[in-house]
Design a protein that fits this description.
Blueprint: H1 3-22, H2 24-33, E1 54-58, E2 61-64, E3 69-72, H3 86-95, H4 109-119, E4 125-129, H5 132-147, E5 151-156, H6 164-167, E6 190-194, H7 198-207, E7 212-218, H8 232-242, E8 246-250, H9 261-265, E9 272-275, E10 286-290, H10 292-295, H11 316-328, H12 331-355, E11 360-364, E12 367-371, H13 381-388, H14 393-406, E13 409-410, E14 418-419, H15 426-450
Parallel strand pairs: 3-13, 5-6, 5-7, 7-8, 8-9
Antiparallel strand pairs: 1-2, 2-3, 4-10, 9-10, 11-12, 12-14
Helix pairs in contact: 1-14, 1-15, 3-11, 4-11, 7-8, 12-15, 14-15
The structure holds pyridoxal-5'-phosphate (PLP).
Pyridoxal-5'-phosphate binds next to helix 5.
């Protein structure tokens, strides 16, 4: 065993021992749930061994059944206004006595659609779905129907939900046939290009222009919050317009970077945009918004229309919560949490510098990521992830994240997508930075062994 492996093994023992001491009830519940639910926990295990069971959430805090409290910097990639926002609670409570589902056009849906059209320059009409994945599935279907073409091009490094075509990835060593359960011929209709690679993207679009229905991208790639470089999104807009390809933005998580979403932030008007849980204020939601001539395909009054109906789409609770959320998220409120996100990023940079650890803290406003890298600039999520997943560094950072949870701070893997919600105050930023610093001090000797380039 190398010295690095030994240090990792010892640190893992320590982290796991603390976790078991903190969460005995959760452990018991997880073991019992495994009898009835595959894996026991509903989402991926967010700790090395088993997750803690939630008791309640409030504001920017999660509370587990063992009495632990965590500052939530992941928010399930959803409610930017934190958990259990009083305005959302009030809106939903007011809706309950009016009924849960009517199968009539309910009041509220029209108002929400109007709000979105007035708020987002590229949105002329809105269609309702239940979640982000479904919004994407229907947006792709509409783009195919509109253009009469089959292929879509995904910009790699983003995540656009779990609909087959949207989640296709090129085969790799871990998944030589692509993601399990996808038909093998999925890739006949899905092309890939790298984020910020104008040349490669241009070539892929030009070569397939006659078959290409849509280009799918996020305005800022959630996978590492890597911003567009040198006008990459403007370039995407120009080239898709040139070849009559539908440009679809994923605003499911990053809508809140600016009042009108990432389209407004980077001054680009996509043809269609998909929204979801980010808007829902904590409740399920899915929306597609965009150009009237494409959106017309969703109209139930049209003979030539796409199938985009499910029983509960635009459910009144989700609509009430989303409307409340949009009202809370004024331009001033967004500016405030963006400043808070920048102050978190500055704080992390100072810690890295102080401890002599190399890395980049990048993103925009309320959405930041830490990249453990020697590079001066991070431009490609795929290249970054390849580097982050090298054994040793990957293990050290996974333990670092688990140690943060032990210290009461929840993040996603690899310190990606650190999310500032509106209830977070200076006090929490302070606590997060203190926990992060302590964690970096703990893994410093490990990094020295497993990733010496990163440590001065
Ligand atoms: C950027 C992005 N797009 C799409 C989705 C899918 O949304 P949903 O989970 O509501 O289906 C997610 C979910 O995390 C996301 O982060």
């Amino acid at each position: 065993m190398s010295k690095g492996e030994e240090l990792l093994a010892n640190y893992e023992k320590e982290v796991e021992a603390t976790w078991r001491r903190m969460t005995p009830k959760s452990r018991e519940l997880c073991e019992r749930a495994e009898k009835y639910i595959p894996g026991g926990a509903l989402r991926s295990h967010s700790t090395g061994t088993y997750p803690s069971y939630g008791e309640r959430v409030d504001g920017c805090y999660q509370y587990d059944v063992d009495g632990n409290r965590y500052i939530d910097l992941a928010l399930g990639m959803t409610s930017i206004i934190g958990h259990n926002h009083p305005e959302v609670a009030r809106a939903v409570q007011e809706q309950v006595p009016k009924g849960l589902v009517s199968f009539m056009p309910e009041l509220g849906k029209d108002a929400l659609a109007e709000m979105m059209c007035k708020r987002v320059p590229s949105v002329e009409k809105v269609w309702f779905a239940l979640c982000g994945s479904q919004a994407f599935m229907w947006a792709i279907r509409a783009a195919r129907a509109f253009t009469g073409r089959d292929k879509i091009l995904k910009i790699r490094g983003g995540y656009n939900g779990t609909y087959d075509d949207a989640m296709a990835t090129p085969p790799n060593d871990l998944q030589p046939m692509g993601p399990p359960g996808l038909p093998r011929n999925t890739l006949d209709n899905v092309l890939f290009a790298n984020w910020n690679d104008k040349e490669g993207t241009e070539k892929a679009i030009r070569e397939h222009k006659d078959d290409l229905a849509a280009v799918l991208t996020e305005g800022l790639q959630t996978g590492g919050t890597i911003p567009p470089r040198d006008g990459y999104l403007t370039f995407l807009r120009e080239i898709t317009s040139k070849y009559g390809v539908v440009l679809i933005f994923d605003e499911i998580v990053n809508f809140w970077l600016a009042h009108g979403g990432t389209g407004e932030l980077y001054d680009v008007k996509p043809d269609l945009s998909c929204y979801g849980k980010g808007i829902g204020g904590g409740l399920p939601m899915g929306l597609i918004g965009g150009r009237s001539d494409i959106m017309k395909l969703f109209s139930q009054g049209e003979k030539f229309r796409v199938a985009a109906i499910v029983a509960h789409q635009g459910d009144p609770m989700g609509v009430a919560a989303s409307t409340a959320c949009l009202n809370v998220m004024t331009a001033d409120e967004i500016a405030r949490i963006n400043a808070m996100g920048e102050s978190l990023a500055d704080g992390i940079r100072s810690i890295l510098e102080e401890l002599g650890i190399r890395g980049q803290v990048i993103g925009y406003g309320n959405h930041q990521s830490v990249h453990m890298t020697t590079a001066d600039e991070v431009v490609d999520p795929v290249a970054y992830l390849g580097a982050a997943n090298t054994p040793g560094l990957k293990d050290a950072m996974a333990l670092y994240r688990r140690s943060l949870i032990n210290k009461g701070v929840r993040t996603l893997d690899n310190l990606m997508a650190l999310r500032i919600s509106t209830p977070i105050s200076e006090k929490e930023i302070h606590a997060v930075l203190a926990a992060m610093r302590e964690g970096f001090v703990e893994i410093h000797p490990i990094l020295k062994e497993v990733a010496p380039d990163l440590v001065a």
